[in-house]
């Protein structure tokens, strides 16, 4: 089994990727400091897989600690780098924390990898690198524009760093530009588990439906969209996890390609926030207390993917509908109160 180091592997996307990697015949090794994840994710992963996954509880930005992981594991074949802070609104309020954490962890990883001959990297990027696009859907050739948040800026900078390092002989890299992950594993044993107040839409929806939160605020209802709310491309987290397996396989076994390849990972469809709310109400049978609020700093009015390149080059397409994704989120939320 080829070992794949998964930084942030106990997080929302990371935990699902760990499951898919193991089931695809790889041996994931988790690095996570649990600053934005919970130990219960490890229990869920083990329950699904029937086996424990190696875990190192360290800060990925700690170069010495990271070096110790590579020394202990010895034969790591590649890395998936998830570890990062990821909330747009929070990044506007705490920009320095985002620059320190998101860039510091990447720089530490890039310093340590070559010491151990590890030269394959899948990077967790974001559609925020496109800023406010001039046209939709966005393709990988869509120009990146000034980011609307420090979070987006860290992803732009990280992509630039990885491109420069690869050109200088650094790791062959696949940049996966995610759109909006939602949903949970079909077993309801892992899912999105935010610490404190959620920063993403769907946990707010499910927590409101479960009575944990009094109301759901929709930020901005005067955008130039069909119903005035923001448009996003919502991809099921398991579909997104599978994209990482495909990317790892391409790096390890696929044809020689550019030192850096970029792929949008989305459904190719846009849905408004209010559409998501209505769809959730339909699949769950729960009526939500919705408050229409002002615009939120850092939000892009509308963005969704052209997913053609991922389909043609990686052979990757999403499989799960918005309704099924939201139903899995609700099943996960209900499991948390059992």
TrEMBL record:
InterPro entries: Epimerase_deHydtase (IPR001509), NAD(P)-bd_dom_sf (IPR036291), UDP_G4E (IPR005886). It catalyses: UDP-alpha-D-glucose = UDP-alpha-D-galactose. Keywords: Carbohydrate metabolism, Galactose metabolism, Isomerase, NAD. It comes from the Bacteria. Pathway: Carbohydrate metabolism; galactose metabolism. The keyword Magnesium does not apply. It is an enzyme of class 5 (isomerase). SUPFAM superfamilies: NAD(P)-binding Rossmann-fold domains. The keyword RNA-binding does not apply. Its EC number is 5.1.3.2. Its cofactor is NAD(+). Residues 4-266 form the NAD-dependent epimerase/dehydratase domain. NCBIfam families: galE. Belongs to the NAD(P)-dependent epimerase/dehydratase family. Homodimer. This is UDP-glucose 4-epimerase. It comes from Hymenobacter antarcticus. The gene is galE.
